[in-house]
Amino acid sequence: MWRKYFKLIKLVPGVVVTRQLGKIDFRSNNLKVSDLQRLYEDDFPYLELTSEGRRVLYGIEPSVKLSTPKPEMPPMMPDVSGLSSVDYSDEPTVAKKSKKKNSRPS
Amino acid sequence: MAIEFTDIDKNLTNGQNMGGIAQKVYFGYWDDVLTWPTKPTNPTTVESNATLTGDLAMKPGKRLFELYLTDDTGEFEIETVGELDGKSFVEHLRLFHPGLKKKILGFMSAIKNENLVFIVQDNDDQYYLMGDSVRPAIFNGSPDSAGTSRETAGRRGMSMEFIYKTANVHEYDGTIPLTEAASGSV
Predict the structure, then answer these.
(1) Using beta carbons and an 8 Å cutoff, which residues of B are at the interface with A?
(2) Gap from B114 CA to chain A (nearest CA, Å)
């Protein structure tokens, strides 16, 4: 239950002696949230709040990320600076697939 | 700025002042300590002059341990030493651990020339840290003998004394990690 609101940091889960509450075994699932909250508020160095803990215990809602609309880009203008006069009299330059026919000697 | 004096009355919370120390002390290798609590710098009150700030933290994979002591055999003594204008303190931890099992024999062999750290809890729930970033606690012998005792009504075991030399005396308000520091905690 407590793990919904707090995360043990910097230590492998185990026993820590605290001034406020004596020995606490962080391997247990049954630690009182109120006890841990008291430790947290006393700057206990091995607990940090989860987002759920911030929300439920302190009313701090998670910050909402706004999706920023993509700016409209002007249409890309072709770069014509390198082009000289172009002769369009040739056949269209569409690649023709040439089928290789199985040629059999007559 | 000089430390401001204040009236010092009897100052016993709930009238409590029981002697002796708890039946366990906490110990570890001095080299295994990652960070030490901070000694007061420019304290302005007598109380802040006796307060360490922060927690003792261990290196990744390291922790502190418990040592049992027989009731009424443990003592934390603050001895004043030094010449005029050169006064400082030596903190003494004395205790008796019963029995001569391999664990305590091996412990004594391991720590006899080692640099150590101790945290001592007294019976008024105050804690004292023996060791700092510059100076460790060290083994200082067996003041009340160590061995089988002579009489059958005697007591087998190890008397131990540890000392820590310090410029000032402080109370430790931080945590005592009896579990390993996680890797990446540096």
Answers:
(1) 26, 55, 57, 63, 127, 173-182, 185
(2) 24
User: How close B58 gets to chain A, by Cα (Å)?
Assistant: 9
- The torsion defined by the Cα of A6, B128, B48 and B46, in degrees rounded to 10, comes to 160
Which residue of chain B is at minimal alpha-carbon distance from A21?
B175
B182: alpha, beta or left, given left = phi > 0 and alpha = psi -120 to 50? Answer: beta
Contact A15 B182 (CB under 8 A): no
**Three-state secondary structure readout of B132-143:** CCCCCEEECCCC
In angstroms, how far is the first alpha carbon of chain A from the final one?
Answer: 89
- The 10s digit of each residue's pLDDT in B34-43 is 999 999 999 9
3-class SS of residue A36:
helix
Which of A99-103, B116-120, B131-135, B168-172 is the least confident region?
A: A99-103
The whole-angstrom distance between residue A65's C-alpha and the CA centroid of its chain comes to 12
Give the per-residue pLDDT at B185: 53
- Residue B150, min C-alpha distance to chain A (Å): 38
**What is the distance between the alpha carbons of residues B128 and B133, in angstroms, rounded to a whole number?**
15
Does residue A65 carry a pLDDT above 70?
no
Instruction: Write out residues 73-92 of A within 8 Å (CB-CB) of B.
Output: none
A45 vs B contacts (CB less than 8 Å): 55, 57, 175
Q: Write down the ipTM of this complex.
A: 0.90
Closest B-chain CA to A42 = B174
